[in-house]
């Protein structure tokens, strides 16, 4: 690998053994994927926000960096908290060391945004920026909707990138890997972006889908990309006439598409849980990725002046949840029986020890993919199950 003089000195230990180890890790990472050099990054985003025992090596790395006085070299944000106080099992069993972990992240210089939707406010990249991000839903949004460039990096690699300010140049950082792979045609009467993302991801694993034009808004793109990344490891998608690297079909393909698939209304409908299962759900869960304030307004208006028929959870970007507290809607949602949380629903709900637990219903394609017992329903399905819409 071609290294600059400064990088070579760091690799030789000129800035201490911790940074030597971090850079050595990135060099080996890059060599494994054929990278020829390391390039600077504009920002980092960590996925390792949970203090759980299986990440022991990760926590040891952070402790070692903090003891050495190392701090991140670029603006760095962090994924949501895991819901340590959401339940007694979480507090006593799953996330006992959470407070220590958060203190170490602060000492490292990480911005305490605690959100997977960092790209909306806390860590907003520009078109063409090279990033060192983990968290699949943030990676796919940054690549696809903003036109920044980051690979789908793992926990620990994200730390090494943040403290060195570097990433190996391969994969989605290169022009040739950002071209369209498969054209996705749509025959849909009632758009459900999260379900569409789930189905595209499942059919086009680790490829670059190009969806024909549909006027998706930012929230739809967020939720569609998150489902696509979960179900299929997709790190980049294009929507013709919507996303920045696909102004036209010709701009994103080299000639004719090598493959074309069709997603129909029947495909979307088939993902929905059957009506008896939807109506027997123990709870209805919104927000994976976390809900923005706009989403809270859109979904929350259905609850105003009503009472939820079963347990309803909103998982909201922490900064937006603070803004919500200044609005009348906050009290109205609480009066309706809605629980407002700022943690990750996947982490918070994973440890459910009751033998009588029932399934839950969610309009999140990502949560449906990852969380056992999370059945999928459209937004209308979820509102009907919550008892606030016919």
What does this structure look like?
The chain is 40% helix and 14% strand. The protein has three domains: 5-175, Aconitase, domain 3 (2-Layer Sandwich), CATH 3.30.499; 179-271, no CATH class; 275-386, Aconitase, domain 3 (2-Layer Sandwich), CATH 3.30.499.10. It has helices at 5-11, 17-32, 56-67, 88-94, 98-108, 136-146, 157-164, 193-203, 218-232, 249-252, 265-271, 275-279, 293-300, 318-324, 328-335, 345-350, 365-370, 379-386, and strands at residues 38-40, 44-46, 76-78, 132-133, 166-168, 182-187, 209-211, 238-239, 259-264, 283-291, 311-316, 338-341, 360-362, 374-376. Helix 13 (293-300) links the parallel strand 10 and strand 11. It has a four-stranded parallel β-sheet with strand order 8-7-6-9. Strands 3-2-4 form a three-stranded parallel β-sheet. The chain has a three-stranded parallel β-sheet with strand order 10-11-12. The mean pLDDT is 95. The relative contact order is 0.12. The N and C termini lie far apart (61 Å).
Low-confidence regions: none
CATH class of the largest domain: Alpha Beta
From the N-terminal CA to the C-terminal CA, the straight-line distance is 61 Å
Major pleated sheet: 4 strands, parallel
Strand order of the largest sheet: 8-7-6-9
The CATH topology of the largest domain is Aconitase, domain 3
How many individual domains? 3
- Percentage of β-strand residues: 5-15%
Give the CATH architecture of the largest domain. Answer: 2-Layer Sandwich
